[in-house]
Amino acid sequence: MPPRIRLCPRALRVRKSQPPTPITRSYASLATATTPAPPINQTNQFVPQIQRYPPTQPPSHKPPETRKTQLHRQYQSLLRSSPLILLFQHNNILAVEWMSIRRELTAALRKVDAELAQNGQPSLADNIRLQVIQTGIFASALRVVEFFDPVKGTIAEQAEKEEERFTHGVSRRAHEIASNRKLKSGLEPLLSGPLAVVSFPTVSPQHLKAVLSILSPSPEFPAPKRKVNPDYHSLEVQGGLQKLMLLGARVEGKVFDMEGTKWVGSIEGGIDGLRAQLVHMLQGIGGSLASALEGASRSLYFTVESRRMDMEDKEKGDKKGE
Amino acid sequence: MITRFLTDIRVQFNPFSPSSKSARLFLSLLPPNARADGMKIESKMLPRNSKEPARLGIKFKDGKELNLEVDKMRITEVTEQVDRHSRILARQEELAGN
């Protein structure tokens, strides 16, 4: 029987040909995915670090199999992938009411999509979703998305420190950076109480307008008339909407209140409309510049001309006077 | 919180102020069928830069009015205040034998 601790200090000095490792009996069920450590007589060479986790599952700060961690990851991906997010507070909305509100919302968005499809724009209706969120986890995920930059400082710090740096959002490093309470995203006061979000894959004012007119009707965004859409005025939808309050929005990382959200929704014709406005404005500037330059000479002409008329009148007057 | 004896609720708050938290939580404590059962609920949202404090006005079934400065109170204190009168009404109702 070989000794349990195979110490052979001579091997550290003189490299001898490596003897074949003795075959030890082991059960397949006990085999682990980790690479076994090399025999001790090889440790004078460079040994790659032992990876103790599969490459697709880097270790996370909190236990990865829990619902909390998965929701955290999911909210991070939601925040990263949707530039426009509306925040609502929901006060005890029943399941039936949620169902009917969602139905009305999809119907309205489909209608907008059908209009925009004529101009060849892609449809967004299926990707705009109203979902209830876990407020605390969402707040934490928002902090990670705002303040944790996975690329920044990784290479420099990695060179200094031996330990590996993880770049995923649920890592310990992300948690430490995001738990700095001095950093403020501006959305913190909104993130309390029961919340629901509407997330948009792109900033599309037309779709935002449809969502606002369904979920928080106002004079600027009137709700559909009873004749046009009788379902919208059913008891379930109206009962649910009374309990849904628009708090604010996060548009491309910036925080907007109710008025700001309405302003974004009131942009006519979306991004194309804005471009048309800009072109129109630039044309206007050209015209006004030309008239301004022309103005000086024209006014001089008018002055001289009026002076001439004046003198002519005087001459006539003098002649008549004689 | 006992909400059976509330008939009229007026809330105003600025969602962007941290002190409006209890006003918002109060709204979330009302039962889902409150409006259908005839409770009048008016909530007014202030714009982001307004400095007006959060306010809560409540009317009870017997006509008593309660105005609370919810910006200085925690939600437990608010429910305590509301329940204090609601319990009196509950006891009266019980003694009347209904």
TrEMBL record, chain A:
This is Ribosomal protein L10. InterPro entries: Ribosomal_uL10-like_sf, Ribosomal_uL10_bac_type. SUPFAM superfamilies: Ribosomal protein L10-like. Signal peptide: none annotated. Belongs to the universal ribosomal protein uL10 family. It comes from the Eukaryota. Residues 50-70 are annotated as: Disordered.
Automatic annotation (TrEMBL), chain B:
Keywords: Mitochondrion, Ribonucleoprotein, Ribosomal protein. The keyword Membrane does not apply. The keyword Ribonucleoprotein applies. GO terms for cellular component: mitochondrial large ribosomal subunit. One of its GO terms (molecular function) is structural constituent of ribosome. It is found in: Mitochondrion. Pfam families: MRP_L53. Belongs to the mitochondrion-specific ribosomal protein mL53 family. PANTHER family: 54S RIBOSOMAL PROTEIN L44, MITOCHONDRIAL, LARGE RIBOSOMAL SUBUNIT PROTEIN ML53. This is Large ribosomal subunit protein mL53. It comes from Westerdykella ornata. The lineage of its organism: Eukaryota, Fungi, Dikarya, Ascomycota, Pezizomycotina.
